[in-house]
């Protein structure tokens, strides 16, 4: 190094040298610290995110994945349900051990954190065991009886058909393992729901067992996995739980059959009036109307009748309570089933209404509509008439479409509110207002829509081919009966009495709540003065 002899130059050179030496010293200290830390700490970043699966079919659990103190969960079986269950349990912080007849072959199908081993070893290690094998193979697990003694067994099996008489698969499993505690559950949860999480499927898990302790442990496991356990009582309820996944729309059967019956009836009725009658009478072929036009006339008929069937059982129930003078008499079974199926009736009505709107939008797109328009224009030119404006028809169509759109909008609101996710966000008063008050408004709008469609056609003789009245007259019968019945319940004398009955009043017995004394030990007195 050469330094300037001048005072200024020497000062500058010394300062630069001090800075450089200081920086080199700091870099040396940092480098030594990094090297010392790298020698003492494991190389975590060098580990691959996805580890290989070589080296045997059995893998030990990592303590860093499972929470300390968590029970070891065993799974007997290596099917689709077992793999999804293992993934969900590992994600929930449980130690999982899977018992397989061929561990080396099945090991690659399960997550890294789950140990795949033999069935005997899995039974020995686990504290709680899921029996995920078909019920006809339960007998092959008898050799595990000593290892499973005193442990909780969760039966997740389902049958192939609905059984009305026992024993259930869970009860048969309990007979094979009398020293274990059998819990029936998770059979209503699909492998897809387990793999994707409870947000994309049903959250409820139905459980039953004769052991309260075993059932409580499985309920705790359900909650930790993100599901909602539902206690179904003793193991004798397992047959009902096993039948649940086998039902095919049990609450939809009658509404769907009713919808199909009404559709077939009105379709044949419209076909006879609008297609068959012109062909028989004047040999005029209009069979092209069958796919679109006849269907479009049939769908609103079904929608309006189905909507009336939603509110008709409520009127029956109200008039029965008025007739009986009490709310404590049980409704007939047919009325009870009808009342519980009103939601399905309403959704079928909404489906038909939406299809009617789509079909109506497609009407001008048909070739037949184009030809009719051209023929009408040609006839107008040929007749020499310049103005074909008919105010009555224009007003009828404007009102008819406007009211129909409002009816469809109200039906859409009813359909959306019937969804459980939406219904849970409103209180009972709001839900009752939407489903009852707005529901009757939708029925009124749909009825008015049909009346405007018919207009004065009911009074024209040419509208009665084969002495068959227009379709809209048949459709209006039931909705008008329902609306008139509802108006009758608005009469003050009937509305007041019905309100009293639903608050506990009885015609033959007027109950008063009093303080108990020596003569009246239950606090209830019968008031005979009100009997009539």
TrEMBL record:
Gene Ontology terms: cellular component: endosome membrane; plasma membrane
Taxonomic superkingdom: Eukaryota
UniProt xrefs under Pfam families: F420_oxidored, Ferric_reduct
Subcellular location as annotated: Endosome membrane
Reactions listed under catalytic activity: 2 Cu(+) + NADP(+) + H(+) = 2 Cu(2+) + NADPH; 2 Fe(2+) + NADP(+) + H(+) = 2 Fe(3+) + NADPH
Residue stretches making up the Ferric oxidoreductase domain: 301-443
UniProtKB keywords: Copper, Endosome, FAD, Flavoprotein, Ion transport, Iron, Iron transport, Membrane, Metal-binding, Oxidoreductase, Transmembrane, Transmembrane helix, Transport
Bilayer-crossing regions: 246-269, 302-324, 399-419, 431-452, 472-495
Molecular function per GO: cupric reductase (NADH) activity; ferric-chelate reductase (NADPH) activity; metal ion binding
One GO process term, biological-process aspect: iron ion transport
Topological relation to the membrane, as annotated: Multi-pass membrane protein
Domain Pyrroline-5-carboxylate reductase catalytic N-terminal positions: 73-159
Cofactor(s) recorded in Swiss-Prot or TrEMBL: heme b; FAD
Family that this chain belongs to: Belongs to the STEAP family.
Protein name, UniProt field: Metalloreductase STEAP3
Lineage, top ranks: Eukaryota, Metazoa, Chordata, Craniata, Vertebrata
